[in-house]
Description:
seven-stranded antiparallel beta sheet; eight-stranded antiparallel beta sheet; mainly beta
Amino acid sequence: MLELPDRLPPGALCDGADTALAHDLATTGALWWTGAELTADTTGAVTGWPARMGARAARPTAPNTGNALIGEAGDIAGLQCRDGLHCGFVIEDVTATASTATLAARYLPPFGEDAKTILTLNTGGAAKKTPGENYLFLSEAEGILTVKDDKGLVEATLPAPPADTPRLILVSLAGDRLTVEALGHDRAEVQARAPVLSGPASLFIGCRNHRPGLTKTLGGALIADVWLWPGRALLTPADATDRAALTALRRFQLWAGDT
């Protein structure tokens, strides 16, 4: 057995990765939902997702009538979505101004199938769509990561990381500028035809809205972690806080072994 005389810093062991990340993100304005916090009823259906960082819990969307489960694969655990079933969760009005934000997810696609919708930042999202709403979503299908909005203002695509590994994807929006990165892999930056989102928005996990249809957009991803930074575009850092948060996520990915 290898023994070291010195005390290792937080995060030097894989089991400390979550703790180290929480410490590093404490002053960055991050909201974080991690699979360890999921709650379920006696049937195994997920009933809530309290935040590890932030005060807002995610709750099941209206069409999610006990469809989501807690899943495990290797050393990760999280929200187990099911292909074609609405397993979504939502944090309503999580940001007052959606024009600038970073959303991120760590997830594992289903073996041999598509993850489909992972995250959506939606300025509407009710069962009945309103004319003024728009949403920006992250999805993965046929080996391609796609981030685009519902009005066709912007779209970015990247090759997905290897199918059998968890991936940590960051999406930063700053007005009409969209940047997407699969940490440890590729990055894309595109300019929209106009500012993409404005006003308050809700964060949807594993779906795009409360509408019961759109089953072709619903996949079987295992979503282990979700982050949101309202008002910060980490991939186009404006200050030391943005840079510190991005560095912390890169370090977390290394310790978690998602490479």
